[in-house]
Automatic annotation (TrEMBL):
GO terms for cellular component: outer membrane-bounded periplasmic space. InterPro entries: Curli_assmbl/transp-comp_CsgG. It comes from Inhella crocodyli. This is Curli production assembly/transport component CsgG.
């Protein structure tokens, strides 16, 4: 019996990896093979209408707590925009800086001069710009409810239970600007609420744990889901936009 018990304990202590599990409501990939393993609730377009650049909010993003969140949600929104198929996405952040660096290296004579794929004047213009904003993020609403209940005599005995129930909420905004006219042609908000029952950190909702940054914090997952909701609201407007002239598609194997 002792040997059997030891075997059970050893089995319980096993660790493993589950690739593709965990993460936030924004997941999967996008590229030449199309959108893969994205959220089932993601709303898409049949064809892209223009090229799109995502730009950082000049006012930054204020989170309710640190929680190790990355400084910007832009990579998440960029993935959503490409997975949706509504736009061809052009890079105006780290990828653009890398492109400029390659051109400078070629001009300095570091890179080969013949057969090089690094050339000036071949970048695609962004016909639209998309700017995200975080309106608010509340991760501890339950404790505020408990404080209010403590002031009411008949409800004081339930304060402890109320403090264990936390409502995690977030609201975000996406603003779409036509770069030719500077007109804001579309705007959308997204919001989400998740209930944390305080039982071993269990979060009731469609968001799951694992990973790092946005994936391993309840706050990050709630904000990511809010951006997914905002994107879906925006697509309803984007579908009404007339398609603009698009650059040639990225070459594929056998194409």
């Amino acid at each position: 019996m002792a040997v059997m018990a030891l075997g059970v304990l050893v089995g319980c202590g096993k660790q493993g990896e589950a690739l593709g599990e965990g993460g936030s409501a924004v997941s999967g990939s996008a590229g030449p093979a199309g959108a893969r393993h994205g959220a089932k609730s993601l709303v898409t377009c049949d064809a892209p209408v223009a090229t799109l650049a995502l730009v950082e909010n000049p006012n930054g993003y204020q989170y309710g707590s640190a929680n190790g969140l990355p400084p910007s949600p832009l990579p998440l929104v960029r993935l959503l925009a490409q997975q949706s198929g509504c736009f061809r996405v052009v890079d105006r952040s780290a990828g653009l800086k890398a492109t400029i660096r390659e051109q400078e290296l070629k001009e300095a004579g570091v890179l080969r001069q013949t057969g090089s794929t690094v050339h000036k004047g071949k970048g695609y213009e962004a016909q639209y710009s998309l700017t995200p904003a975080l309106n608010f993020s509340e991760m501890d609403a339950g404790r505020q409810v408990g404080g209010l209940m403590a002031q009411i005599p008949v409800l004081r005995n339930f304060v402890g239970a109320a403090e264990q129930v936390k409502l995690k909420e977030a609201q975000v905004t996406l603003l779409l600007t036509d770069n030719e006219t500077t007109e804001q042609v579309a705007a959308a908000t997204g919001s989400v609420r998740v209930t944390d029952l305080g039982v071993g950190g269990l979060v009731v909702g469609r968001l799951s744990g694992g990973g790092a940054g946005w994936a391993n914090s309840n706050e990050g997952k709630v904000i990511a889901a809010a951006f997914l909701d905002a994107h879906n609201q925006l697509v309803a407007q984007v579908r009404e936009l007339a398609a603009k002239d698009l650059p040639p598609p990225v070459p594929k194997k056998g194409g």
